[in-house]
Design goal:
Two copies of one chain form a homodimer.
Chain A: E1 2-6, H1 13-22, E2 26-30, H2 41-46, E3 54-57, E4 60-63, H3 65-75, H4 87-112, H5 121-145, H6 158-170, H7 180-190, H8 193-201
Parallel strand pairs in A: 1-2
Antiparallel strand pairs in A: 1-3, 3-4
């Protein structure tokens, strides 16, 4: 059986929703990041990066959301969770997901985990101070990328579930009403049965 | 005809090598990042992020290396540049590429472009000071991921070309002899005819 290591409201929320959308048979294993469970030797043996999410498949572990979301979409093609059959549409899906991973997620992390990049407290405060402006600029770019009503157009994909995570984080940092297409994706994802079940399972609803 | 926007020795080197490995008919368009050409209105209309690489296909532009490298591999399947036919192997390819994009590239950027994350000069100096330790930690993780002789095992893929970029950058920042599997990938990529042609074309050889 598939096993997903997650932390509540972390970016692991996206593949958690993905597994539920797919109707997959899976076990969700919660890690307490504040207690440092992601650095337990047993977990580091599976994922030396010490991060979530991690998906354990029958062939081995997969890290990094663009890869995990793609694997779920390919393993459950009948759920139509990504346009994997059209090379250009799939590239746009991957581009969007990879952009979230290397862009807005990194900019949020400067607010949440500034100590990754500096050991100096004044410098950490400087990173936290600039993070909202970078996150806002990212949402502006993302707003321009959304075809509507979903990220890729008419059809839901796991790019929407991934964006949903960052809207949840962004609400506490920037004025989200400036991004109506982003918020429309958020609202459409929020009402889906799979999303509602996973939010409840993670203790967020 | 395909058009790749690149800057010499930037991470666009990976898809540049990829197009050459594929035997693609393409035009490589150089942007002078120091002169700010990536912020020209004509370019921002194609890529609002103002970054390289950007690949223009007959269906539209694609940004982000994990997406571009995958598109090249899928468009030229006979070149066997990624294991796109095996869902788990492809997930490992994507995971490796996405990890480079959101991990080591970001850590290098704290040395090269600290002003992205702080407007304070002392904080920028603090980011630059910590960057080599983060890059070294990333190379240690990558060393453990490489199956050998190539990243994914016996067969070359564009994950190798992508790693090649960061080894070129890393040589000026950390002691690369600590990562023999990484260096073996670098050395195997360096001698390939496609790599040699692209290094010459970018003025790096």
């Amino acid at each position: 059986m598939l096993k997903l290591f997650y932390a509540p409201n972390a970016c692991s929320l996206a593949p958690h929703i993905g597994l539920e959308e797919a109707g997959a048979d899976y076990e969700a294993v919660r890690l307490d990041l504040k207690a440092g469970e992601q650095r337990n030797p047993d977990y580091l043996a599976l994922n030396p990066k010490g991060r979530v999410p991690l998906l354990i498949t029958d062939k081995g572990p997969i890290s990094e959301n663009p890869a995990i979301l793609t694997w779920i979409a390919q393993a459950y093609p009948e759920a139509k969770l990504a346009p994997t059959g059209d090379a250009f549409a799939f590239a746009k899906f991957l581009s969007f997901c990879a952009g979230l991973s290397s862009g807005i997620h990194v900019n949020f992390a400067h607010a949440f985990r500034a100590s990754r990049w500096s050991d100096d407290e004044a410098a950490q405060a400087s990173l936290k101070a600039k993070a909202p402006a970078n996150v806002a600029a990212d949402f502006k770019t993302i707003e321009g990328q959304i075809k509507g009503p979903f990220v890729l157009g008419q059809d839901y994909s796991l790019a929407d579930a991934y964006l949903f995570v960052f809207v949840r984080w962004g609400k506490n940092m920037v004025e989200m009403s400036a991004y109506p297409k982003v918020m429309a994706v958020h609202d459409a994802v929020a009402v889906r049965p799979a999303t509602r079940k996973v939010l409840a399972d993670e203790g967020l609803a």
